[in-house]
Design a protein that fits this description.
The complex is a heterodimer.
Chain A lengths: L2 E3 H15 L3 E5 L3 H4 L2 H6 L4 E3 L4 H13 L3 E7 H7 L1 H10 L5 E5 L17 H6 L5 E3 L4 H13 L4 E5 L3 E3 L14 E4 L4 E6 H17 L4 E5 L2 E3 L3 H11 L1 E9 L4 H12 L3 E7 L9 H7 L4 H22 L1
Parallel strand pairs in A: 2-3, 2-4, 4-5, 5-7, 6-7, 10-11, 10-13, 13-14
Antiparallel strand pairs in A: 1-8, 6-12, 9-11
Helix pairs in contact in A: 1-8, 4-6, 9-13, 10-11
Chain B lengths: L2 H25 L1 E2 L1 H5 L2 H11 L14 E4 L5 H11 L38 H15 L6 E6 L6 H12 L5 E7 L8 H4 L5 H7 L3 E6 L3 H12 L6 E6 L18 E2 L2 H11 L4 H5 L1
Parallel strand pairs in B: 2-3, 3-4, 4-6, 5-6
Antiparallel strand pairs in B: 1-7
Helix pairs in contact in B: 1-3, 1-4, 1-10, 3-4, 5-6
The complex binds thiamine diphosphate (TPP) and magnesium ion.
Thiamine diphosphate sits at the interface of chains B and A.
């Protein structure tokens, strides 16, 4: 399969948007090379603002640009995009009902060698607490492009987790997407893996392949938007499979797992297990090492799916 | 300082520089630019000024260093290993899964590290807190702080600048590693920080500016700073990012670069040629 660099797709998409809409502007905080947007700067220098290592200022300035009628995209590492700018993003951008598109790169273990200080396992979670904010994380180049375009058109702030490395394409070129609507990547009857982001979705798909060899039919959903969560789809697959596994490159606290659990417990209590980081800080290592360390592998997902199925079958036996 | 002592420090700095290049080369990638620009100041502090003991890294009465530009960890690890805080073999575990030497300084993993850093701007506030705690406990020790010039874009640096002067923290001696580069380019092009002297001065600090690769100059500045009665000190170090590694020195891509091991070893060999030091001064 061909691998495409996510940040290149992101920059390309922003340039296409900017060519059509003069309101699109770009903000960076001394991580322009990392974000891959130097090409945007070269093409639209007057619409590019690098504020230096000053993330809080960047987001505040973005809010001001929005108040002035622009559509700002502001990028930095996810750890700083969330933790370092939270109040500025909360008040100046969201509370003020403006239109700032904040992007946090290097989600979770993809921060790898930058280590614990740079490894956001909580960014989507804390962002989920901001009223009306749309929080999403594309899993491949095709969904990235489509969702960035939607984010630009959305009236209001968004937060995107951007895995910026080269990854495989999952979706066909012309696939359509809608913020807030999950995608069923693989249908199944026994258990559902609801995943978000490049690492978890790819591993969940591989887990489904492992499981089918054991005769277990696993559905896989790409829940690219964790807020607003696609309640309808969650409930549909809870009813269909009776067992839900959530998979994320993030803390299980307040992330996708929490969002799904909240939906299920209120509307249709279902057996579930949340997979992700369990109340731990990040640490340094290769992405492969860290995926093992925090259980973000197809093997672990498959093992947990089998466990969950066992529980489900036991409960069904008892109730007979 | 006698010329003999300067020569010893230069020799030590060369060793530390080689250990740092070797460690990053062994891993294959790292923040080599900002690590190499602080080799001399770290050498001077740990060899001559700081009261620390490898046998008892957490003793209460000690000088402390907060390296706010936490990505310079590898340079600090070299000097700490050299002083015996941990075995030199650890240097080849940089960034490996489960390592005690992560890319950014971690006080809970590495003996001799006084503060966890990596999120730029935060170290100055931590250093202020340490200086205040020392004062409360009557601990007559210094806290040293190293910040980056790009890091000086952060608002928190200037909140700290105001506070340290306000609290009259004469037990705090800070350095700006003025290597003129940040990640995206030259500091004056990305987000200009000048006039640094005037800024720190206006905030109420005792400001000096010296060549950050010259031991004699730096030593005199530190000794003057140590005698300050009321003000915190800022010593602005004119440095060269990537100093001493031919493939990295002054190279705008040197912030976090791939380094192959053969190239690293070649750079170390070049440092041993007779005129290497003069050439790089
Ligand atoms: C709050 C924060 N924002 C961004 C980064 C990413 N980052 C690491 S180093 C760096 C540039 C720092 O430049 P400078 O202080 O000049 O460092 P040096 O040249 O000494 O390496 C940036 C933006 C970070 N570590 N922390
Ligand atoms: Mg610098």
């Amino acid at each position: 399969m061909n691998q495409l660099e996510m940040r290149a797709i992101y920059a390309q998409t922003l340039m296409e948007l900017a060519a059509q809409d003069s309101r699109i502007v770009l903000l960076e905080a001394d991580l322009m090379k990392a974000s891959g947007t130097t090409v945007f700067r070269d093409r639209f220098p007057e619409r590019t603002f690098n504020v230096g290592v000053a993330e809080a200022n960047m987001v505040g300035v973005a809010a001001g640009l929005s108040a002035g009628g622009k559509i700002p995209f502001a990028n930095t590492f996810g750890c700083f995009a969330s933790r370092r700018t939270y109040d500025q993003f909360f008040i100046s951008a969201n509370y003020a009902r403006l239109n700032v598109k904040l992007v946090g790169t290097d989600p979770g273990v993809s921060a790898a060698y930058n280590g614990g200080t740079h490894m956001p396992f909580e960014d989507a979670g804390i962002m989920r607490n901001i009223p009306k904010l749309v929080v999403f994380e594309p899993c491949d180049p095709v969904s990235l492009k489509a969702l960035v375009i939607q984010s630009a058109r959305h009236q209001g702030c968004t937060y995107m987790r951007l895995h910026r490395k080269a990854i495989e394409t999952i979706y066909p070129e012309n696939e359509t997407f809608e913020l807030g609507k999950g995608k069923v990547l693989n249908d199944g009857n026994d258990v559902t893996l609801i995943a978000v982001g490049a690492i978890a979705v790819a591993e969940a798909l591989k887990a489904a392949e492992i499981l089918i060899k054991d005769g277990i039919s696993a559905a896989v959903i790409d829940m690219h938007t964790i807020k607003p969560i696609d309640t309808e789809l969650v409930l549909q697959y809870a009813k269909k499979t009776g067992a839900i596994l959530t998979c994320e490159n993030h803390q299980v606290i307040n992330g996708l797992g929490s969002a799904v659990a909240e939906t299920l417990s209120e509307d249709y209590p279902t057996l579930m297990k949340r997979l992700g980081v369990d109340d731990e800080f990040g640490e340094v290592g290769t992405q492969e090492y860290l995926q093992e360390r925090f259980g973000m592998t197809a093997k672990n997902y498959a093992a947990c799916a089998r466990e969950l199925l066992k529980k489900k079958n036991n409960i069904q036996k008892k109730s007979k | 300082m006698e010329i003999e002592e300067v020569k010893q420090l230069q020799a030590k700095a060369k060793e530390i520089r080689k250990m740092t290049i070797d460690a990053i080369g062994y891993l294959g990638v790292g923040h080599i630019g900002g690590a190499l620009s602080v080799v001399e100041i770290l050498t001077l502090l740990y060899e001559k000024h700081m009261d620390v003991s490898p046998e008892n890294p957490r003793k209460k009465h000690r000088d402390k260093l907060v390296i706010s530009k936490g990505h310079a960890g590898p340079a600090l690890y070299s000097i700490l290993a050299d002083k015996g805080f941990f075995p030199k073999e650890w240097l080849h575990t940089l960034n490996a899964g489960g390592t005690n030497l992560p890319s950014h300084c971690d006080m809970n993993r590495t003996p001799g590290i006084d503060m966890s850093t990596g999120s730029l701007g935060q170290g100055i506030s931590a250093a202020i807190g340490i200086a205040l705690a020392n004062r409360l406990d009557g601990i007559d020790k210094k806290v040293y702080l190293i910040i980056g010039d790009g890091e000086s874009n952060e608002g928190q640096i200037w909140e700290g600048a105001m506070a340290a002067a306000h609290f009259r923290l004469n037990n705090m001696i800070a350095f700006t590693d003025y290597n003129k580069m940040q990640i995206d380019g030259y500091v004056h092009e990305i987000m200009n920080v000048e006039d640094l002297n005037a800024k720190w001065n206006a905030f109420g600090w005792f400001v000096q500016r010296v060549n950050g690769h010259d031991f004699q100059d730096m030593n005199m500045a530190i000794e003057r700073a140590q005698k300050e009665l009321y003000r915190p000190s800022m010593i602005i170090l004119d440095t060269i990012k990537g100093k001493g590694a031919f493939f990295a020195e002054r190279n705008l891509a040197n912030h976090n670069m791939n380094v192959n091991y053969e190239t690293a070893q070649e750079a170390c060999r070049l440092l041993d040629t007779p005129d290497a030091l003069e050439k790089s001064l």
